[in-house]
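Box 3.1 A note on notation
Throughout this textbook, protein chains are presented in two layers. The first layer is the amino acid sequence; the second is a token string describing backbone geometry. Keep the layers aligned when reading.
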Amino acid sequence: METIRLHKGLDLHLKGEAQKKVLQTLTGEVVSVKPSDFRNMVPKLLVAEGDAVKAGQFLFIDKKRPQIGFSSPVSGTVKAIVRGEKRKLLAVEVAADKDTQYIQFPKLSATNSSREEIQKVLLESGLWAAVIQRPYGIIANPEDTPKAIVISAFNSAPLAADINFTTKNDADAMQIAVDALAKFTNGKVYVNLDAKNGGGSPLNLLRNVEKTMFKGPHPAGNVGIQINHICPIGKGEIVWTIQPQALAAIGRLLSKGIYDVSRLVAITGPRAVETGYVRCVPGTSIKALKDIAGVVETQDIYGQPTGVRYVSGNPLNGENVGENGSLGFYDDSVTFLSEGNYRELFGWAKIFRPKKFSMSKSYFSWLCPKKQYSADTNVNGGERAFIVSDVYGKVLPMDIYPVYLLKAILAEDIEKMEQFGIYEVIGEDFALCEYVDPSKIEIQKIIDKGIDLMLKEMA
């Protein structure tokens, strides 16, 4: 098995890592399905308030591609249709039954069924939304044939869920899904493992795949980084990706005929009193997860009460959904952080700051490389001029020029964007660049803006 060593990157050691134990199984909650979880999609609503739905029933479809629908993960009653400005659909809320009733889809053999049969079931159930296309990080086009399918078997982001733990009982289901998805490509299905503990991963048991070990700091676990090293994307080329827990859901759909997207979700963060894993479905309310985590009030360095930031996902590229928000469709962790709304007198001039981490040797954190820090959301300054620096290149192990790509996006120069690697990246690949950026620029938003421009101009 080939091992690819990445020397660029940065591991962040934060307090609040999830303990490897299942705290609870959540049922009977209000679940939200949000169109905003899906890039480049215009929703068309199919249900009304008061309608009874089953798990696997469409709540809305994509107007541009009506064959792609988005299903309720639970059975129950449509409690609310949440709209924003100009009646924009924000969410469909479903009050879940205590016992889930599923729509029954055809059971298929992954080896004996055709691509068309498998594709039909994935589309009719709503699980096609789990298949993501690179470039752009959008839902894959069912009519395309990718040159490869890439699966990352680990997540190296700080406080990310341990995929070895969350998928430990799903090896058989994932094998069914891999055999089925192999019919969609003329190339290989790649499974990329962590060199530290990939040998014990359930995904290491998969057959008929090309396995590669990745060794190095974050973002070694990002599927975009892995694609750049094993099958780079050029203009006109397509690669599909899928997350391991979604892979297991596809296996359950084909073997049992049900839309079961339940997953183990990591409860993490320095503000969580109780960390661990909760079995629930996408769209579960953050309030319910907060109660399990036991989030309590704390004080900042000046004795003032600090608020809590509720992040669906990991601290680097998760979404701030608020206390009234819900778990994203693609997320398998929730992070509870302290809001950093304080200022430090002469903070920039202090030499000894044991509670602060620095990538450089400005503080003494480099003497304690394994020390865990109780991070908050303070940016320690404000946005400044965009300067040319090699700081991005130190944490981005890709064969691209990040500064020039960002400048091309800001200039809306599509030709330059293509030359400098817009087909290779999405926002999460630049999360570390944003973290270490001395100019405090929201780099992930710039990348997202570039992708939106490409989708608009290249459609």
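The mean pLDDT is 93. The first strand starts at residue 2 and ends at 5.
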